[in-house]
Every structure is written in structure tokens, then in C-alpha cells.
Amino acid sequence: MAWVYLLVAALFEIGWAVGLKYSQGFTKFWPSVLTIAAMVLSLFFLAVAVRSIPVGTGYAIWTGIGAVGTATLGIILFAEPVTAWRVGCLLLILCGVVGLKIAAP
């Protein structure tokens, strides 16, 4: 169940990272409220997950999924550039996340 909590935490991390763009520096009320709520939920689920998963593994996977998901949504939602370098680096992060999951006890 800890891995499910970690995935939920990572999804909320993606949500708050993207929410930062919509909140426009916390100047828009509802996007700011939703962003802060996603931050709290993300950290809560991460804390629950690392009760059972090694903290280094959990944190690295949380940030890796968050980074890949946020960068992907940046491309989709905000027309951020898609280059071979960006895609290659995102794939390397994804490989690292999968490797950490495989290596976890």
C-alpha cells in the first residue's frame, strides 16, 4: 500500500507544481488555495509512504515522477519546447525512477 501512497503523493506534487503557474505567484485566490492543498496532500502522502519505504528511495521516486509529470504537462498545457535533449533527459529520470523501484526492498 505504501507504493500506492507514494504514487498519489507524486500525482499531487505534479498538481501543485502546475498549480504554481495557474496561481500566478499566489495572486489568484482559488488556484492558490488548490495549489496549497495539493502541496499539503503531497507531503502527507509522502510521509505515509516513507513509513514503509526507505526515505531516500521514496523521496527520489516522488521527485522523479513529479519532475517528469510536470515537464510533460508543461509541454502539453503551456507549449513548452519539445527537444531531443529534454525528452532524453526525461527518459533518463524515468529510468532512474524505475531502477529505484526495482532495487527497493
Automatic annotation (TrEMBL):
Cite the Pfam families for this sequence: Multi_Drug_Res
Residue ranges of coiled coil:
none
Can you name a GO cellular component term? plasma membrane
InterPro entries for this protein? EmrE-like, Small_drug/metabolite_transptr, Small_multidrug_res
Q: Name one GO molecular function term.
A: transmembrane transporter activity
Record's SUPFAM superfamilies? Multidrug resistance efflux transporter EmrE (SSF103481)
Reading the lineage from the top rank, the first entry is: Bacteria
TM helices/strands, residue ranges: 29-50, 59-79, 85-104
Keyword Metal-binding recorded: no
In which broad location class does this protein mainly occur, judging by the first location in its UniProt entry? membrane
In the bilayer, the protein is annotated as: Multi-pass membrane protein
Please list the GO biological process terms of this entry: xenobiotic detoxification by transmembrane export across the plasma membrane
Q: Kindly give the Gene3D superfamilies that the UniProt entry links to this protein.
A: 1.10.3730.20
Keywords for the protein's UniProt record, in alphabetical order = Cell membrane, Membrane, Transmembrane, Transmembrane helix, Transport
Q: In its UniProt entry, what is this protein called?
A: Guanidinium exporter
Transmembrane keyword on record: yes
Q: Where in the cell is it found?
A: Cell membrane
Q: What is the lineage of its organism?
A: Bacteria, Pseudomonadati, Planctomycetota, Planctomycetia, Gemmatales
- What family, per the record? Belongs to the drug/metabolite transporter (DMT) superfamily. Small multidrug resistance (SMR) (TC 2.A.7.1) family. Gdx/SugE subfamily.
